[in-house]
Each structure stands twice: as structure tokens, then as C-alpha cells.
## 1
Amino acid sequence: MDDNCPYDLLSVQEADFDVAHEYAQLRENNSQDGAIVYEYAQLRENNSQDGAIVFFSGLVRDFNQGQDVTGLFLEHYPAMTAKALAGIIDQAKSRWPINRVRLIHRVGQLHLADQIVFVGVSSSHREAAFEACHFIMDYLKKQAPFWKKETTKKGDWWVETLEKDQKALDKWQQDDPTDS
Amino acid sequence: MINIVFFAQLREQLKSDGLQLDIPTPCTVKEIQVALLEQNPQWSDFLSNPALMCAVNQDMVQLDAMVENGNEVAFFPPVTGG
């Protein structure tokens, strides 16, 4: 991750998270980010004050591959997870003029309707914040080492990958003018 | 020596979360996969699955990626997070 931005935070945790707290962290004092952190950016253009925050929270749902679903177990590759997520954030930052990013992904045993993932992005303008948030989620689903196992009353089942997730990723690659 | 690790459904199918593999380096991930199958022919239904993903030192790669002595090589099913 970009060492120059202390406001980017990513967490892989068993604990639940509080969306209101995360939103407040994205919002708080962010007009000062440019003055403190992005000295070079400020020299070029002093427009660091954010005008938009977009966030997404994902919830555990029934993947309909089993019956009588009671929840999900989230496995991950601990040595790789943070590195993969930081790489996705870096890609988003290279494509859009975004400021802060907050990413939380839960692991372990979760239940239906539990919060599982949070992605929050701040930016001067809404377009960049919307698109970067969407991009981070689409890449996370195909490139971060997490696996869902559905727990049901009749046994446990590994969730299969979905073709629509690959199509979502392909769309961003077609849209990237720098990606040959 | 290469540190091999397996995750999720693949770990359960192989009944192994990993092992140390002694193989001449540098080599490719594909050569590691072949060596693992030679030592464990009972894994062929699972470790030969073309949908599997792999990583070298925690970076996602293709089967033709190079591996050096001391690297960690991971094999796992397509990811399903988010």
C-alpha cells in the first residue's frame, strides 16, 4: 500500500464492524490530508478537500447451493490476504483521483445477514468515489484469497465461483485505457 | 526446498494443508505441480484441476511462473470472498 497515506486502512478480522464509525473516519478532518500528506499533489493542484464518500457493505446471504443454510465459514490465506487487498487499493488509486480508502473483510464463522465486507472511498468528486468503490469490490471477489463454506443443517458446502463475477472483472479491464 | 500450501476445498480433498518439496530450482509452478502428482498420484483428480489458482510468495501467478529456492507456492480453488 502507499506508505504516504496513513488514512488508508485495511483490516481482516473476525470481529464485526460499525458502519457509522467507519464513515466518520473517512469524513473526519479529511480536508487536511493534502496539506499533511500529499505535498507533491498539493504543489500541483490544491484541491484535496473531499466532496464525496461512497461506501459498500456486503452481508451474508444464502448462496442457494445448500439447504437450510445456517451461515458461512470464511477461510483465507493469512500471509497473502493483506498483500492482495493492498494491491487492489493501489490499482484503484492509480486509476481514479481518490483520497482515503477503508477496507474491512471478516473471516471465521458468520451467520445469515451478518456484515461481511466494507469498502469506503473518499474523493473530491462522486464519479471517482463510485467507480473506485465498485472496482475494489469486483477485484476483491476475484483476486483476494477468501473462500466461503456454507454451513447447513445437512452438512457444509464450499461456495462455487460465479461466472458473473469474472464478467464484472472483464468489464473493468476493457474499460481501462492503459491496459493493452 | 519449496514450502507448498493448500487452501479451502483443495486442502480438504488432498487431506493436507501443505508440505516441504525438495526440487531443483529455479523451476516453474507447473513443474512443481507435476512433481507433487508424481509423489502423490492419489491427488490427480484434484491437483490437476485447470480451474485451480496459484500464488508464489503470496502473489497470484500463472503455471509458467518461476519459483526459486525458499519460495512459498500456494494452490487453491477459485476465490469466493466479498
## 2
Amino acid sequence: MSLFINIPEDKEPLPSLKTGRGKLLWIASTDHKQLGIMYLCLALFFFVIGGLEAMAIRAQLALPDNDLISPELYNQIFTMHGTTMIFLVLMPAMVGLATYLIPLMIGANEMAFPRLNAFSLWMTCLGGMLLYFSFFAGGAPNAGWFNYAPLSENNYSSTKGVDYFLVGLILTGIGSIGAGLNFITTILTLRSPDIKLNMLPLFVWMMLVNAFLMLAAFPLLNAGLFMMLIDRQFDAHFFIPSTGGSAILWQHFFWAFGHPEVYILALPAFGIISEVIPVFSRKPIYGYKFVASSSVAIGLLSYSVWAHHMFSVGLSNAVNGFFAISSMLIGIPTGLKVINWIGTMHKGSISLSIPMLFAIAFLVDFTFGGLSGISFAIVPIDWQLTDTYYLVAHLHYVFLGGSLFGIFAGIYYWFPKISGRMLSPKLGKWHFWLFVLGFNLTFFLQHILGILGMPRRIYTYPDLPYWKVLNIFSSIGAVFMFIGMAIFFWNIYKTLKKPRTAVANPWDAWTLEWSTPSPPELKNFDEIPQVHSRRPLWDLNNPDNPDKKLN
Amino acid sequence: MHRDKGKLLMIFFIFSETFFFIALIIAYVYYRNFSDATDTVAKHLDAFRAGIFTLFLIASSFTLLFSKKALLKKKYTNFKLWMALTILFGVIFMLGQVTEYIGLYQKQITLEKDIFGSSFFTLTGFHGLHVILGIIALGILFAMSFGKLKKVAFSGINGVDIYWHFVDIVWLFVFYFVYITPLL
Amino acid sequence: MPNYYFLKITDVDLIEELFVYFLIVASIIFLLVVFFTFFFLFRYGVKKRPKKPSQIESAGQAESVLAIIVTIVIGVFVYLTIVTMEKVQTIPENPKPFLEITGHQWWWEAKYPNSGVVTSNQIYIPTGKKILLKLNSADVIHSWWVPELGRKMDMMPGRDNYMWFYADKEGEYLGTCSEFCGVQHARMRIRVTALNPEAFEVWEQQQLRPVATTNTKDFLKGKQLFETKTCTNCHAINGTDFKENIGPNLTHFASRKRFLADMKVNNEKNLRAWLTNPQDVKSGAKMPNFILSESEVDALVAYLNYLK
């Protein structure tokens, strides 16, 4: 029995503010473009908060034996910093860009389930608000974003902070699952009939794989969160060793989610870079099939590596060995994509727009982060370097150097499409240089700190040789990043006040979203464009040298 | 051409819920096999009684199948009959669950008793929650079939029936791991 | 089965060697990526190139060749990983640990099963022998890490973990708790002192001696206060009836150079500050403020300073 049956298209449009222009009506919107923008606003808002938390951390850690921030407050700040950046900044930013762009890139007028779309956004919002409400309810969660048991259980964390963490993340998790469901059904059912799966823009491909990852990973987290909530609220014993429970089980559940989650955060960045580099090298991506299939491989493999976060827990050598092998193997499809990106630049015609600048920074810094990650797969090295600043350096290299630089590239690239205005390249350059130099200063030095023995998640440290100077410079880098971000926000603010003068295709790009005006009309496409290759607009503009016909 | 996105949505939703239940079952199996404690709940469970209620749930899947077939053939009376039976069997299953819980609580087997209490009630509890949601969805379809909303029931049944069968299959796994394996 | 044996290369050196191999390979890869990125960036800049360059696409050869090369390199590292793991972490069937360390929020409890020594925070080991550590936790997850003497190993409540520990030379080795364990995780540091085997034996004998006592007024008053102020509810002193291990064992406290898990030097000023209000010194520590008067603090300091 076939999965797909013909049902007639809805005659009635779904409720949305197709006619109203009032600002409050945004709250009732189910339009994917408005929801995408709201996701991005949410991400930028929490980025400011998470960034301020980071500045507080670096201020406290600039000097040894510092007493700027008490340990009680510091532990809340670093917990919230990690939780915010992952669940309230990177996730919504990626989901927001995807929500905005996927229908435009596949020739559709809307996502498959607009109301589910709105539901996902508001669940994410609610989760974030609950999480931050904890500051006013006796204290924010303070057991780290990974919330290990039994520290996070009632007898060791008696404020309600952890409960707000649990419920807040359950809600954002439900939002993410909703978004994943929407992406898959949209991509599979609402594509323009000409578009075969092997013709999807790579950003769409990555989001498709990502959506599967979201569906399979967030339930694992939710199960763990519910179990701990039941522990804390109903005196159950899931993760409390003293009454028979297992602290390791929490780690297994958390990381079985946590590792796919980092790929959920990386794949969209890969997708964005795979759109940006070809356009600014004026060539198609070097190896579409490889990039697409290696993402599927990463998606599947990401479920086999989770215990590499637990190498020092004392599991057997056989178990550790298995996860060492799987973790090293997953580096292969991830790393080889770099060949495809650099290969795209080969014999191209490269212009250094701001998106391209961030793409270059991504190539360098994400590679660095990926390599330091491989060092952790070599188990005995992990036995020395895990839980140190070397690991903090690694994770920031992949999250910022990878995910965030990808997001910046995407924002600069698609800003004209979304808002109808071009962001100032001059301010963009200031943002880029200040942020990238500050980032590398802050986090490169932290590799050394880790090797020198500085552990992570500490509110202060003793005055050991070189620790002070390295931490001071690391904190100085944070100041550069702060200024760079201020310039970025200033750029956005200033640009939004200008009139809408952007053309439909300012970068002379080739995917379908660039065939709509900037910004697109409420109804994306009046007629569904003809598509015969991966680059329909290239074919349109180069009828004498079109891409190979794929349908 | 539009593919049935509603059915696809339900399939993928079930895909994600599968992982949720896998996690809960893993907790249960983990405590049994990897902790030193012996399963204190298992000996108080009545597998035979639970088996009877399982049969009701399995039967409800069949009645739902007949109900859907009737709807597709536009035989609305049959549809309502089989649907009512499905809902009834679902409710009987839940009653069986609830009375089992009451019986266990009277014997001091509670959620907070120990890890087995915690995992038993959490696993069967979440499953029961899903059954209740299914009953509500079936009830809505049933109610809609009276009057002008017949057409909506027509497209809704495709998603709801997948969900109900899923709930049934999950229960078979739960039944196996919770009630059957201690007896082996 | 002996729980220590002599060896030729330390585990720590082995791991360092492995890290160097990794650094070499990673640097080569990184430099290649950087080189090609920037070379292409400058060689193929838009100013020197046609507006529409040849639209080449890959046929997959480059990726496949590199995949094979990378897989081989990974194969080598897999082998090295497994071999090193076996060398560093092979624990005998019935482990008989030389030293049992239990992590508490935020101090270390140490027991030497062979000699019967029980102490806290100040940990001594003999040089020249690989010793077996047994690690567990009394409350939340902690992690034992002295980078120069061995690997990191988590201390899990309800589970015993074993690892090897080795000091080549005499000296003081610094380490730290390496798993976030609550408000004072940062101040749960480690200082291991390695003595040559003879000196270590002397230390063990000293630890086993009963506590020194004297008859000065302050000492006796302090000793009495130690009981009446309920210190004994948490702290043990060997050779007396006080055996609780909720707080660190205070036997021979006066001969410890540092206290509060290596946070402060053990001198009168610091001890006084601690006794006056522990929460001012290490906030969140489980020792409440007993609101002692100055003369009570004097007496207790006199008492504790005599426990050599």
C-alpha cells in the first residue's frame, strides 16, 4: 500500500495575518517566513544573554583566586551559559533559518504544518522563559548543562533550579521534535514535482538528515529529563545510587542525546557553508553526492559514539575501545567534507564577501576543532585531557568555529532576502575581524591551559605557573568578541532602518529562493518554477551551458 | 499531486516516540540486569490478569481496522459500531491498568519504593498516558462522524489508526519485558 | 598478588608519547587545510579570474583516495589506542589496592589497607613502585586526577574504580578533582607527596602513632570543646572514640602543611579564620558556622595545633 495518496489541496488558507500589518499579529502568525524571523530574533536575544554570561565567566576567571563572583552564582552562570547557547541560541537559529528557507528552496508556498510550526516556536520560547524564571524562583540550575546525577538530585541540589532546567528543556525538546517533523514532511511532500531528492540544495539535505536526528535524539533526552523530574518530584530512584539507582544511566541517556545533538548543531552549518562557498567561488559544490551521502553517514554513525563522553567513568577497555573506534570513524565523513569545500574554491573565481569571510574562518577553525576532537577519541589521551580547558577549547572551536560561523555566514548571506536590505559590508568586516581574532585568542590559549592541568567548571584557580597570564589573554579575547558582536547588532539595527532596496538576487546565486523578490511576497511562488538541475537559476541565466539535467 | 502529509507526520511522530519508549524500557532492563538488586515488583505482578487486558488492547486494534475499512466504504453505521467497540476495549484496558495500580499501592508497591517501583510505574504510566490520548483522539473521530464533519473523520482516521496500532505494539513490548521475562 | 610492581616507562609518559604522535599527524592535516584554503583564496581571487570559471564537479576520486589514506592512519591510531589502554588500565582479577581514596564534597579521604593508616587530604605515596588505587565516592561523582602520576578516573558513588599510580621521584605533585561536584569543586585540589620507600615507612609509622596529648590549660579546654561543640559528630581522630567520616579525619592534623583540600596553608591565622566562620573561607562547605567566641577559637587552635 503506497505511502502517498492524492488528496486535494486545501481551498481555505490557514488562519494567518495575510492582511493585517499590526505588530501584535505576529504572535498569531503561522506563516513560515514570519516564524523563521521570530526564531532568529529569539536566538539573537538569548545570544546576548548567553554572551553576557560568558563575559561574566571570563571576568571571574581572568585572575587567580578571584572573588568577583561567588561560587554559588558562578555555578549558575556557567550552567545557564551552556544551556542557553545550545538550546536557546544555536538550535533556534538553525531551525529559524531552515523554517524560513526550506519552502523557498523547494518551490513550496508554506511548510507542511503551519500551526505545528507556530507551536514549535512558542514551545521553545516558553521553555526558555521557564528556564530563566528560575533566577527569580530561588536560583538558576547550577549542576552544569549536563546535569549529572546524583549532584542534580534533590539531596544535593535543593533549590528548584534543576526542576526549571528539566521542565524548560522538555518544552524546548518538544518544540524541536515538532520542527523536525515539519521539516521532514515538508521536504518529502511539498517539493515542486520536478525536484528529485538528489537535486535538493545542500542546506535542505542537511536539514532533512538533521530532522531525522532531532526525531531520534530529543526523545532520549526527554525520557531522561522526565525520569529525573520524577526522581525529584515524586521521590523515585532512577539516578540515585544510594537507593539503588544508577548515576551512569543518566550519563548514558544524556550523551545518547548529547552526541547526536552536536551533529544537529553542526549539519546545518555544513549546509550553509555548502551554499555560500559555491556562490562566492562561482562554481557548483565540488562533490554534491559525497557531501550529501557523508551527512547521512554522520547521522547514522552519531548514534554509535556517545560513550566517548564517558571514557573516564571506568567502563571496561572493551567498551571504551568500541567507542574509540566509532568516534575515530565518524571523523572521516566529517573531515572529508573539507575536501569538497576547498575543492569548490579550486579554479573558481572567489570574491571575499562577508559570508565568504566567515566560510573561510569556518574552514580553518572547524577543522581545528574537529582535529582536537579526534584527540579525545584516542582514549588514553582522553584520560588526561577530558574535563580540562583543552576540552572547553575543543567544544568552543566546533560550536563557534563551526556552528556559529556557519550561522553568521548564513545571516549575512540571506539577510537581503529576508529583510530586503544589504547589511553593511564595512561593519561586517569589523565584526568579522574582531570576533574571529578574539575567538582564536580566547580559545586557542585554553588548549594550553588544559594541557597544563587546569580543570573545567571551576569558579577560580590557584596561581600556578602561566595560568594567570593565559587566562588574562583568554579574557581579553572575550572583550574583542563582545565588541565585534556589538558592531554586528549595530549593523542589523542600522540596516533595518534603511529602505528596502535589495534586488532579488544580489549575490547572483542559483537556488530557488533567489528567484523571489527581496523580501518575498506573502505567497512565495505564484507558479512553481521549472527545475531540471541543482541550480535552476544558473540554467535560466546560462541556457547555452546548463547544468546536467537530473530529471 | 499532494502526498498524504498527515499520515507521514504520524509515521515520523511514532518514529520519535519509539525512541522515547526504548529509553524507558532500557532503564527497566538495565536495573534488572546491571544492578545488584532483585526485581521486587515482578513477583507481585499478575501476568495472567495483565494478559487478559492485553487481549482487549489487541482486540481493539482489530476493531479499529474493521472500523476504518467500514469508513472507507462509507458504511457509517458500521464505522460507528466498530469505533465504539475500539474505544470500549481501550477503556477496559485502562481500567485494568488503574485497578492494577491500586492493587499494587495497597501492597505498598509504589513509585518511591525502589528502582523497580520507579521504573515500572513510569514505563507503564507513560504508556497509559499514550493510551488515554489515543482514546481521546478516537473519541473525537467518533463524535465527528455524527453530522457534517464526516469528511474530517475520513482524513483523520489515517493518522489515528497508525497511532493506535503503535500504542498496541509498544504495549506488547512492555508486556514482554515487564510481565513475561521475570517468569522465564 | 602484589599490588605494585616495578616498571620501565611510566603510563604518563606513554600517554604523552601518544599525544605527540597525534599532534604530528593533526598538524600536518591542519597545515594542509590552511595552506590549500589560503592558496586557493589568493590564487583564484575574483580579480584574476574569468567571471564564469569552468563549472567543474567532482567525480569522487579525490574524496575516495583521501578516505582510504585517512582510514589507514586511523587504523594505526586505533591500534595504538588499544595497546596503550591495555598497558595503562589492566587491573588484576581480585584487586588488592594499596590506597583507597574516597571523594567527599569537597575533601579526600585516604585509607591504606596494608598498614591501616587513615588520613585525609594530605596523601603520601612511596616512589619507585606502581601502586593500585581504589576510588569511590561518598556522595556525588568526583574524579581523581594528578596528571604527572597517572590518568584521570571518576569516583562514582556505589561503584569502585581502580587505576595505577606511579611516582618516579620524590616531590610534591599537584592535581585536582575533575568532575563538577558542587559549589566548591574548584577548591577540591590534590597535593600528593611522594617519598622514597624508607621515608614512606617512617611516615606510615608516624601516622599510626596515637595522637600527642599534653596538659596545658588551652589544650584540655580545646579537647573538651572539640566534643561539646559537636565537632566529633563529623570528624574522627584515630585512637579515640571519634570515628565519623562526614568531615576529614583530623588525626595528626598539626603535621599537615595545608588544609581544606589544599586550599590554604595550615597556619594559625588560616585555622583561626576557618574556625571563626568556615562559610567566609570556603562558602558552601558542609561545616556550619558554630559562632565560637574568640577564647573558644583560641582553645581549639591550641588543641588542633598539638595534634602532630
